[in-house]
Amino acid sequence: MSENDGILFYSDFNCPFCYALNERLVALGDSTRIRWRGIEHEASATSRVVTLDEKNQLLNEVSVVRKRAPEISVVTPPFRPNTNLVNRVVFAMLDQDSRKMSELRTLIYRALWLHGKDISNPDFLKKLVEDLALDYPADDQLEVMPKALEQWQTEWQSEVYQTRLPVLVSTENNKPILGFPTYDLLHYFFNGTDLPVAPDSFAACQLKPKQNILMVGEFQLSRCNMVELEPAYYVIRKRTLESAQKWLNEQDCSPDMVLINYDSFGNDGLLFCNHLKKQHEYRHLSLLFLMAQDKEGSEMAAFDAGATDVVFDLSNPKVCQARLDAQLRAKQSATILDALARLDYLTELPNRREFDRRFDEDWLRSLRSGKPLSIILIDIDHFKFYNDHYGHTLGDDCLRQTTKAMSNAIHRTSDIVARYGGEEFVVLLPETDTEGATTVAEALRASVEMMQVPHLKSLVSEFVTISVGVASIVPDLGILPHRLLEAADEALYESKENGRNQVTVNAGAFIE
Predict the structure, then answer these.
(1) Which fold, 352-505?
(2) Is 176 helix (H, G, I), strand (E, B) or coil?
(3) Rounded CA gap, 170 and 282, in Å?
(4) What is the pLDDT of residues 433-469, one digit of tens each?
Protein backbone atom coordinates (compact mmCIF):
# COMPACT_ATOMS: atom_id res chain seq x y z
CA MET A 1 0.00 0.00 0.00
CA SER A 2 1.45 3.36 -0.97
CA GLU A 3 1.60 6.52 1.14
CA ASN A 4 -1.23 7.87 -0.99
CA ASP A 5 -3.54 4.98 -0.16
CA GLY A 6 -4.39 4.86 3.51
CA ILE A 7 -5.10 6.79 6.71
CA LEU A 8 -2.55 8.99 8.44
CA PHE A 9 -2.70 8.73 12.25
CA TYR A 10 -1.01 11.62 14.08
CA SER A 11 -0.72 10.37 17.64
CA ASP A 12 1.31 10.33 20.81
CA PHE A 13 1.69 7.24 22.97
CA ASN A 14 1.16 9.24 26.17
CA CYS A 15 -2.30 10.45 25.07
CA PRO A 16 -5.25 8.34 26.35
CA PHE A 17 -7.45 9.47 23.44
CA CYS A 18 -4.88 8.14 20.97
CA TYR A 19 -4.73 4.88 22.94
CA ALA A 20 -8.53 4.55 22.88
CA LEU A 21 -8.71 5.31 19.15
CA ASN A 22 -5.99 2.74 18.45
CA GLU A 23 -8.02 0.15 20.41
CA ARG A 24 -11.09 0.92 18.28
CA LEU A 25 -9.09 0.68 15.06
CA VAL A 26 -7.77 -2.72 16.15
CA ALA A 27 -11.30 -3.85 17.05
CA LEU A 28 -12.59 -2.70 13.66
CA GLY A 29 -9.80 -4.52 11.85
CA ASP A 30 -8.66 -1.32 10.14
CA SER A 31 -5.19 -1.06 11.70
CA THR A 32 -3.52 -2.30 8.49
CA ARG A 33 -4.72 0.82 6.68
CA ILE A 34 -3.07 3.11 9.21
CA ARG A 35 0.08 5.10 8.47
CA TRP A 36 1.39 6.04 11.92
CA ARG A 37 2.86 9.53 12.42
CA GLY A 38 4.29 9.93 15.89
CA ILE A 39 4.37 13.39 17.46
CA GLU A 40 5.07 14.80 20.93
CA HIS A 41 2.19 16.71 22.44
CA GLU A 42 4.17 17.47 25.60
CA ALA A 43 7.92 17.50 25.06
CA SER A 44 8.52 18.38 28.73
CA ALA A 45 6.75 15.25 30.02
CA THR A 46 8.82 13.09 32.35
CA SER A 47 8.30 9.99 34.47
CA ARG A 48 10.48 11.42 37.22
CA VAL A 49 8.52 14.46 38.39
CA VAL A 50 4.72 14.67 38.53
CA THR A 51 2.96 17.85 39.67
CA LEU A 52 -0.58 18.08 41.01
CA ASP A 53 -1.63 19.83 37.78
CA GLU A 54 -0.26 16.95 35.69
CA LYS A 55 -1.93 14.32 37.85
CA ASN A 56 -5.26 16.13 37.68
CA GLN A 57 -4.97 16.45 33.90
CA LEU A 58 -4.35 12.72 33.56
CA LEU A 59 -7.35 11.96 35.75
CA ASN A 60 -9.55 14.29 33.69
CA GLU A 61 -8.47 12.81 30.36
CA VAL A 62 -8.96 9.23 31.52
CA SER A 63 -12.38 10.15 32.90
CA VAL A 64 -13.46 11.50 29.51
CA VAL A 65 -12.14 8.41 27.72
CA ARG A 66 -14.12 6.17 30.07
CA LYS A 67 -17.30 8.09 29.31
CA ARG A 68 -16.74 8.20 25.55
CA ALA A 69 -15.39 4.65 25.22
CA PRO A 70 -16.85 2.54 28.06
CA GLU A 71 -15.90 -0.67 26.22
CA ILE A 72 -12.18 0.13 26.53
CA SER A 73 -10.23 -0.65 29.69
CA VAL A 74 -7.99 2.19 30.82
CA VAL A 75 -6.22 3.10 34.06
CA THR A 76 -4.59 6.36 35.06
CA PRO A 77 -0.81 5.88 34.92
CA PRO A 78 1.33 7.33 37.72
CA PHE A 79 2.96 9.78 35.27
CA ARG A 80 2.91 10.98 31.67
CA PRO A 81 6.19 9.64 30.21
CA ASN A 82 8.25 11.44 27.61
CA THR A 83 7.77 9.85 24.17
CA ASN A 84 10.72 11.21 22.23
CA LEU A 85 12.63 7.90 22.42
CA VAL A 86 9.69 5.60 21.71
CA ASN A 87 8.75 7.68 18.66
CA ARG A 88 12.32 7.38 17.33
CA VAL A 89 12.37 3.64 18.03
CA VAL A 90 9.09 3.01 16.21
CA PHE A 91 10.11 5.24 13.30
CA ALA A 92 13.42 3.40 12.89
CA MET A 93 11.50 0.11 12.65
CA LEU A 94 8.85 1.13 10.09
CA ASP A 95 10.40 -1.03 7.37
CA GLN A 96 9.95 -4.19 9.43
CA ASP A 97 6.93 -6.53 9.34
CA SER A 98 3.86 -4.24 9.13
CA ARG A 99 1.56 -6.60 11.04
CA LYS A 100 4.03 -6.95 13.90
CA MET A 101 4.66 -3.20 13.89
CA SER A 102 0.95 -2.59 14.34
CA GLU A 103 0.99 -5.06 17.21
CA LEU A 104 4.03 -3.36 18.73
CA ARG A 105 2.33 0.05 18.74
CA THR A 106 -0.69 -1.49 20.41
CA LEU A 107 1.47 -3.15 23.07
CA ILE A 108 3.23 0.15 23.77
CA TYR A 109 -0.11 1.91 24.25
CA ARG A 110 -1.39 -0.86 26.53
CA ALA A 111 1.81 -0.97 28.55
CA LEU A 112 1.15 2.62 29.64
CA TRP A 113 -2.65 2.84 29.71
CA LEU A 114 -3.40 -0.62 31.11
CA HIS A 115 -0.34 -1.40 33.23
CA GLY A 116 1.21 1.99 34.05
CA LYS A 117 4.64 1.04 32.66
CA ASP A 118 7.32 3.59 31.85
CA ILE A 119 7.50 3.51 28.05
CA SER A 120 10.36 6.03 28.10
CA ASN A 121 12.61 3.31 29.57
CA PRO A 122 14.86 1.93 26.78
CA ASP A 123 15.25 -1.46 28.49
CA PHE A 124 11.48 -1.89 28.66
CA LEU A 125 11.08 -0.91 24.99
CA LYS A 126 13.82 -3.29 23.93
CA LYS A 127 12.11 -6.20 25.69
CA LEU A 128 8.78 -5.39 24.01
CA VAL A 129 10.47 -5.39 20.62
CA GLU A 130 12.40 -8.60 21.24
CA ASP A 131 9.28 -10.41 22.53
CA LEU A 132 7.73 -9.82 19.09
CA ALA A 133 10.85 -11.16 17.36
CA LEU A 134 11.54 -7.75 15.84
CA ASP A 135 14.94 -6.04 15.53
CA TYR A 136 15.58 -3.24 17.99
CA PRO A 137 17.30 -0.26 16.27
CA ALA A 138 21.03 0.21 16.64
CA ASP A 139 22.24 3.07 18.86
CA ASP A 140 23.38 5.18 15.89
CA GLN A 141 19.85 5.02 14.44
CA LEU A 142 18.46 6.63 17.59
CA GLU A 143 21.03 9.35 18.15
CA VAL A 144 19.57 11.95 15.77
CA MET A 145 15.94 13.03 15.45
CA PRO A 146 14.78 11.96 11.96
CA LYS A 147 13.71 14.76 9.62
CA ALA A 148 10.40 13.01 9.02
CA LEU A 149 9.50 13.14 12.72
CA GLU A 150 10.34 16.84 12.79
CA GLN A 151 8.17 17.39 9.72
CA TRP A 152 5.23 15.50 11.26
CA GLN A 153 5.56 17.60 14.42
CA THR A 154 5.47 20.79 12.36
CA GLU A 155 2.44 19.60 10.43
CA TRP A 156 0.59 18.72 13.62
CA GLN A 157 1.33 22.14 15.12
CA SER A 158 -0.05 23.94 12.05
CA GLU A 159 -3.47 25.62 11.94
CA VAL A 160 -4.84 22.70 9.93
CA TYR A 161 -4.77 20.24 12.84
CA GLN A 162 -4.92 22.80 15.68
CA THR A 163 -2.53 20.76 17.87
CA ARG A 164 -5.38 18.44 18.83
CA LEU A 165 -5.08 14.71 19.40
CA PRO A 166 -5.75 12.26 17.94
CA VAL A 167 -5.80 13.18 14.24
CA LEU A 168 -6.92 10.89 11.42
CA VAL A 169 -6.40 12.07 7.83
CA SER A 170 -7.56 10.26 4.71
CA THR A 171 -4.87 10.48 2.03
CA GLU A 172 -7.61 10.12 -0.60
CA ASN A 173 -9.57 13.28 0.23
CA ASN A 174 -7.29 14.93 2.82
CA LYS A 175 -10.21 15.38 5.22
CA PRO A 176 -9.15 15.09 8.87
CA ILE A 177 -10.97 14.03 12.00
CA LEU A 178 -9.66 16.12 14.89
CA GLY A 179 -10.28 14.49 18.24
CA PHE A 180 -11.62 11.15 19.40
CA PRO A 181 -14.45 9.96 17.10
CA THR A 182 -17.39 7.67 17.78
CA TYR A 183 -17.81 4.35 15.98
CA ASP A 184 -20.39 5.98 13.69
CA LEU A 185 -17.96 8.71 12.68
CA LEU A 186 -15.25 6.13 12.01
CA HIS A 187 -17.68 4.26 9.77
CA TYR A 188 -18.40 7.40 7.74
CA PHE A 189 -14.71 8.27 7.62
CA PHE A 190 -13.43 4.88 6.45
CA ASN A 191 -16.13 4.62 3.81
CA GLY A 192 -15.19 8.00 2.33
CA THR A 193 -18.59 9.58 2.94
CA ASP A 194 -19.23 13.03 4.37
CA LEU A 195 -19.15 13.19 8.14
CA PRO A 196 -22.40 14.09 9.89
CA VAL A 197 -22.37 17.28 11.95
CA ALA A 198 -21.74 15.93 15.42
CA PRO A 199 -19.31 18.20 17.29
CA ASP A 200 -20.35 16.75 20.65
CA SER A 201 -18.98 13.39 19.55
CA PHE A 202 -15.42 14.65 19.58
CA ALA A 203 -13.08 14.73 22.53
CA ALA A 204 -9.52 15.92 22.16
CA CYS A 205 -6.48 15.82 24.37
CA GLN A 206 -5.70 19.35 25.52
CA LEU A 207 -2.89 19.65 28.00
CA LYS A 208 -3.90 23.11 29.14
CA PRO A 209 -7.69 23.37 28.88
CA LYS A 210 -9.01 26.90 28.99
CA GLN A 211 -10.62 28.09 32.19
CA ASN A 212 -13.94 29.95 32.20
CA ILE A 213 -14.43 33.51 33.42
CA LEU A 214 -18.02 34.71 33.83
CA MET A 215 -18.30 38.51 33.80
CA VAL A 216 -21.57 39.86 35.20
CA GLY A 217 -22.62 43.47 34.63
CA GLU A 218 -21.57 46.36 32.41
CA PHE A 219 -17.80 46.57 31.98
CA GLN A 220 -16.05 49.48 30.31
CA LEU A 221 -12.60 49.02 28.74
CA SER A 222 -11.38 51.98 30.78
CA ARG A 223 -12.18 50.03 33.98
CA CYS A 224 -11.53 46.42 33.00
CA ASN A 225 -9.21 45.59 30.10
CA MET A 226 -9.31 41.84 29.35
CA VAL A 227 -7.27 41.97 26.13
CA GLU A 228 -4.41 39.90 27.59
CA LEU A 229 -6.77 37.25 28.95
CA GLU A 230 -9.04 36.71 25.95
CA PRO A 231 -6.73 34.25 24.08
CA ALA A 232 -6.04 32.08 27.14
CA TYR A 233 -9.52 31.87 28.70
CA TYR A 234 -13.15 31.47 27.75
CA VAL A 235 -14.76 34.77 28.72
CA ILE A 236 -18.56 34.74 29.06
CA ARG A 237 -20.32 38.09 29.46
CA LYS A 238 -23.79 38.49 31.00
CA ARG A 239 -25.28 41.92 31.64
CA THR A 240 -27.85 40.92 34.28
CA LEU A 241 -27.83 38.72 37.35
CA GLU A 242 -30.81 36.79 35.97
CA SER A 243 -29.03 35.92 32.70
CA ALA A 244 -25.90 34.96 34.67
CA GLN A 245 -27.92 32.61 36.90
CA LYS A 246 -29.63 31.12 33.84
CA TRP A 247 -26.23 30.44 32.24
CA LEU A 248 -24.94 28.85 35.45
CA ASN A 249 -27.99 26.58 35.66
CA GLU A 250 -27.30 25.30 32.14
CA GLN A 251 -23.69 24.27 32.86
CA ASP A 252 -22.54 20.80 33.88
CA CYS A 253 -19.88 22.29 36.15
CA SER A 254 -19.13 25.63 37.72
CA PRO A 255 -16.99 28.32 36.02
CA ASP A 256 -13.52 28.96 37.36
CA MET A 257 -14.18 32.62 38.14
CA VAL A 258 -17.09 35.03 38.41
CA LEU A 259 -16.27 38.73 38.15
CA ILE A 260 -19.15 41.00 39.19
CA ASN A 261 -19.29 44.74 38.60
CA TYR A 262 -20.59 46.00 41.94
CA ASP A 263 -21.61 49.35 40.47
CA SER A 264 -24.03 47.57 38.10
CA PHE A 265 -26.04 45.89 40.89
CA GLY A 266 -25.11 47.23 44.31
CA ASN A 267 -26.44 45.07 47.15
CA ASP A 268 -28.20 42.74 44.70
CA GLY A 269 -24.75 41.70 43.53
CA LEU A 270 -23.81 40.88 47.13
CA LEU A 271 -26.92 38.73 47.52
CA PHE A 272 -26.05 36.93 44.29
CA CYS A 273 -22.54 36.26 45.59
CA ASN A 274 -23.85 34.98 48.91
CA HIS A 275 -26.33 32.72 47.12
CA LEU A 276 -23.55 31.11 45.05
CA LYS A 277 -21.19 30.60 47.96
CA LYS A 278 -23.83 28.68 49.90
CA GLN A 279 -24.01 26.03 47.17
CA HIS A 280 -21.67 23.03 47.41
CA GLU A 281 -20.73 22.98 43.71
CA TYR A 282 -19.39 26.54 43.92
CA ARG A 283 -17.25 26.03 47.02
CA HIS A 284 -13.98 26.55 45.11
CA LEU A 285 -15.29 29.32 42.87
CA SER A 286 -13.14 32.46 42.65
CA LEU A 287 -15.68 35.26 43.04
CA LEU A 288 -14.41 38.81 42.59
CA PHE A 289 -16.06 42.22 42.74
CA LEU A 290 -14.94 45.20 40.70
CA MET A 291 -15.69 48.46 42.55
CA ALA A 292 -15.14 52.07 41.64
CA GLN A 293 -14.30 52.85 45.27
CA ASP A 294 -15.12 51.66 48.76
CA LYS A 295 -18.45 53.32 49.47
CA GLU A 296 -19.54 53.11 53.11
CA GLY A 297 -17.98 49.75 53.79
CA SER A 298 -19.10 48.04 50.59
CA GLU A 299 -15.69 46.35 50.27
CA MET A 300 -16.10 44.65 53.64
CA ALA A 301 -19.68 43.77 52.76
CA ALA A 302 -18.41 41.98 49.66
CA PHE A 303 -16.05 39.85 51.73
CA ASP A 304 -18.84 39.12 54.20
CA ALA A 305 -20.97 37.92 51.27
CA GLY A 306 -18.27 35.39 50.33
CA ALA A 307 -16.17 37.26 47.77
CA THR A 308 -12.67 35.92 47.19
CA ASP A 309 -11.30 39.40 46.50
CA VAL A 310 -12.29 42.97 45.69
CA VAL A 311 -10.46 44.95 43.00
CA PHE A 312 -10.79 48.63 42.14
CA ASP A 313 -8.88 49.07 38.89
CA LEU A 314 -8.29 46.56 36.07
CA SER A 315 -7.70 49.10 33.34
CA ASN A 316 -4.10 48.06 32.76
CA PRO A 317 -4.26 44.81 30.71
CA LYS A 318 -1.04 43.44 32.22
CA VAL A 319 -2.21 44.14 35.77
CA CYS A 320 -5.63 42.69 34.95
CA GLN A 321 -4.03 39.50 33.67
CA ALA A 322 -1.71 39.19 36.67
CA ARG A 323 -4.50 39.69 39.22
CA LEU A 324 -7.00 37.33 37.64
CA ASP A 325 -4.32 34.75 36.80
CA ALA A 326 -3.30 34.63 40.47
CA GLN A 327 -6.89 33.98 41.52
CA LEU A 328 -7.39 31.31 38.87
CA ARG A 329 -4.20 29.49 39.85
CA ALA A 330 -5.27 29.46 43.48
CA LYS A 331 -8.70 28.15 42.52
CA GLN A 332 -7.21 25.42 40.33
CA SER A 333 -4.84 24.30 43.08
CA ALA A 334 -7.70 24.12 45.58
CA THR A 335 -9.79 22.07 43.15
CA ILE A 336 -6.94 19.64 42.44
CA LEU A 337 -6.15 19.14 46.11
CA ASP A 338 -9.83 18.63 46.89
CA ALA A 339 -10.22 16.08 44.09
CA LEU A 340 -7.12 14.15 45.15
CA ALA A 341 -8.22 14.22 48.79
CA ARG A 342 -11.48 12.49 47.81
CA LEU A 343 -9.90 9.87 45.56
CA ASP A 344 -8.25 6.54 46.29
CA TYR A 345 -5.05 6.70 44.24
CA LEU A 346 -4.79 2.98 43.45
CA THR A 347 -8.34 2.17 42.37
CA GLU A 348 -9.46 5.71 41.40
CA LEU A 349 -12.65 5.13 43.39
CA PRO A 350 -13.97 7.59 45.96
CA ASN A 351 -12.07 7.03 49.20
CA ARG A 352 -13.37 6.53 52.73
CA ARG A 353 -13.54 10.25 53.36
CA GLU A 354 -15.64 10.90 50.27
CA PHE A 355 -17.91 7.97 51.11
CA ASP A 356 -18.48 9.34 54.61
CA ARG A 357 -19.45 12.73 53.12
CA ARG A 358 -21.86 11.19 50.62
CA PHE A 359 -23.30 8.86 53.27
CA ASP A 360 -24.10 11.80 55.55
CA GLU A 361 -25.76 13.68 52.67
CA ASP A 362 -27.83 10.70 51.53
CA TRP A 363 -28.85 9.84 55.09
CA LEU A 364 -30.25 13.34 55.63
CA ARG A 365 -31.92 13.28 52.22
CA SER A 366 -33.60 9.95 53.00
CA LEU A 367 -34.57 11.23 56.44
CA ARG A 368 -36.46 14.10 54.78
CA SER A 369 -37.99 12.05 51.96
CA GLY A 370 -38.85 8.92 53.93
CA LYS A 371 -37.25 6.76 51.21
CA PRO A 372 -34.98 3.76 51.95
CA LEU A 373 -31.20 3.83 51.91
CA SER A 374 -29.02 0.75 51.40
CA ILE A 375 -25.39 -0.14 52.07
CA ILE A 376 -23.39 -3.01 50.59
CA LEU A 377 -20.07 -4.00 52.16
CA ILE A 378 -17.68 -6.14 50.10
CA ASP A 379 -14.51 -8.04 50.93
CA ILE A 380 -12.22 -9.83 48.44
CA ASP A 381 -11.98 -13.43 49.59
CA HIS A 382 -8.56 -14.49 50.93
CA PHE A 383 -6.85 -11.44 49.47
CA LYS A 384 -3.91 -11.79 51.88
CA PHE A 385 -3.20 -15.21 50.39
CA TYR A 386 -3.35 -13.61 46.93
CA ASN A 387 -0.75 -10.98 47.85
CA ASP A 388 1.48 -13.55 49.54
CA HIS A 389 1.43 -15.82 46.48
CA TYR A 390 1.42 -13.39 43.55
CA GLY A 391 3.12 -10.35 45.11
CA HIS A 392 1.84 -6.86 45.81
CA THR A 393 2.21 -5.62 42.23
CA LEU A 394 -0.21 -8.22 40.91
CA GLY A 395 -2.26 -7.65 44.05
CA ASP A 396 -2.70 -4.02 43.02
CA ASP A 397 -3.72 -5.15 39.54
CA CYS A 398 -6.27 -7.48 41.12
CA LEU A 399 -7.75 -4.59 43.09
CA ARG A 400 -8.04 -2.51 39.92
CA GLN A 401 -9.70 -5.32 37.98
CA THR A 402 -12.13 -6.01 40.81
CA THR A 403 -12.89 -2.28 40.96
CA LYS A 404 -13.65 -2.15 37.25
CA ALA A 405 -15.92 -5.21 37.39
CA MET A 406 -17.92 -3.80 40.31
CA SER A 407 -18.15 -0.32 38.77
CA ASN A 408 -19.56 -1.84 35.58
CA ALA A 409 -22.30 -3.49 37.65
CA ILE A 410 -23.46 -0.11 39.01
CA HIS A 411 -25.66 1.80 36.57
CA ARG A 412 -27.28 4.73 38.40
CA THR A 413 -25.30 7.97 38.72
CA SER A 414 -26.61 8.38 42.28
CA ASP A 415 -24.95 5.10 43.39
CA ILE A 416 -21.28 5.02 44.30
CA VAL A 417 -18.66 2.33 44.84
CA ALA A 418 -15.92 3.44 47.24
CA ARG A 419 -12.81 1.87 48.66
CA TYR A 420 -13.48 1.35 52.35
CA GLY A 421 -10.00 0.17 53.29
CA GLY A 422 -7.52 -2.50 52.14
CA GLU A 423 -9.45 -5.10 50.15
CA GLU A 424 -12.82 -3.89 51.46
CA PHE A 425 -15.28 -1.84 49.41
CA VAL A 426 -18.61 -0.18 50.11
CA VAL A 427 -21.56 0.63 47.84
CA LEU A 428 -24.06 3.37 48.69
CA LEU A 429 -27.53 3.02 47.15
CA PRO A 430 -29.94 5.92 47.76
CA GLU A 431 -33.67 5.30 47.37
CA THR A 432 -33.09 1.53 47.29
CA ASP A 433 -34.91 -1.05 49.42
CA THR A 434 -33.72 -4.48 50.54
CA GLU A 435 -34.89 -6.23 47.39
CA GLY A 436 -33.16 -3.76 45.07
CA ALA A 437 -29.96 -3.78 47.11
CA THR A 438 -29.88 -7.59 47.10
CA THR A 439 -30.19 -7.60 43.31
CA VAL A 440 -27.29 -5.15 43.01
CA ALA A 441 -25.21 -7.14 45.49
CA GLU A 442 -25.66 -10.35 43.52
CA ALA A 443 -24.72 -8.52 40.30
CA LEU A 444 -21.54 -7.28 41.99
CA ARG A 445 -20.63 -10.77 43.19
CA ALA A 446 -21.28 -12.31 39.78
CA SER A 447 -19.36 -9.61 37.90
CA VAL A 448 -16.21 -10.28 39.94
CA GLU A 449 -16.53 -14.06 39.60
CA MET A 450 -17.02 -13.74 35.82
CA MET A 451 -13.65 -11.98 35.46
CA GLN A 452 -12.06 -15.35 36.20
CA VAL A 453 -8.89 -13.83 37.64
CA PRO A 454 -6.85 -16.86 38.83
CA HIS A 455 -6.44 -17.21 42.61
CA LEU A 456 -4.61 -20.47 43.26
CA LYS A 457 -4.41 -19.90 47.03
CA SER A 458 -8.10 -19.18 47.57
CA LEU A 459 -9.96 -21.62 49.78
CA VAL A 460 -13.20 -20.79 47.98
CA SER A 461 -12.59 -20.94 44.23
CA GLU A 462 -9.84 -21.12 41.65
CA PHE A 463 -10.73 -17.53 40.76
CA VAL A 464 -10.97 -14.24 42.68
CA THR A 465 -14.35 -13.93 44.45
CA ILE A 466 -16.00 -11.56 46.90
CA SER A 467 -18.15 -11.86 50.01
CA VAL A 468 -21.01 -9.38 50.34
CA GLY A 469 -23.15 -8.00 53.16
CA VAL A 470 -26.34 -5.99 52.59
CA ALA A 471 -28.38 -3.75 54.87
CA SER A 472 -31.28 -1.38 54.15
CA ILE A 473 -33.20 1.12 56.23
CA VAL A 474 -35.66 3.98 56.09
CA PRO A 475 -33.75 6.51 58.23
CA ASP A 476 -35.39 7.61 61.45
CA LEU A 477 -34.40 10.25 64.00
CA GLY A 478 -34.14 7.51 66.61
CA ILE A 479 -31.46 5.59 64.68
CA LEU A 480 -27.85 6.71 64.28
CA PRO A 481 -26.36 6.40 60.74
CA HIS A 482 -23.51 4.15 61.84
CA ARG A 483 -26.03 1.41 62.71
CA LEU A 484 -26.67 0.87 58.99
CA LEU A 485 -22.95 0.30 58.41
CA GLU A 486 -22.77 -2.03 61.39
CA ALA A 487 -25.71 -4.02 60.04
CA ALA A 488 -24.02 -4.41 56.64
CA ASP A 489 -20.78 -5.41 58.38
CA GLU A 490 -22.62 -8.07 60.38
CA ALA A 491 -24.06 -9.46 57.14
CA LEU A 492 -20.60 -9.45 55.55
CA TYR A 493 -19.20 -11.37 58.53
CA GLU A 494 -21.96 -13.94 58.11
CA SER A 495 -21.13 -14.36 54.40
CA LYS A 496 -17.53 -15.09 55.30
CA GLU A 497 -18.45 -17.48 58.09
CA ASN A 498 -20.78 -19.42 55.78
CA GLY A 499 -18.20 -20.13 53.10
CA ARG A 500 -17.63 -16.79 51.28
CA ASN A 501 -18.43 -15.92 47.66
CA GLN A 502 -22.03 -15.18 48.62
CA VAL A 503 -24.49 -12.42 49.50
CA THR A 504 -26.03 -12.14 52.96
CA VAL A 505 -28.80 -9.69 53.89
CA ASN A 506 -29.08 -8.43 57.45
CA ALA A 507 -32.69 -8.89 58.55
CA GLY A 508 -32.25 -7.14 61.90
CA ALA A 509 -35.05 -5.38 63.76
CA PHE A 510 -34.62 -1.95 62.14
CA ILE A 511 -33.91 -3.29 58.66
CA GLU A 512 -36.69 -2.71 56.19
Answers:
(1) Alpha-Beta Plaits (3.30.70)
(2) strand
(3) 44
(4) 999 999 999 999 999 999 899 999 999 999 999 999 9
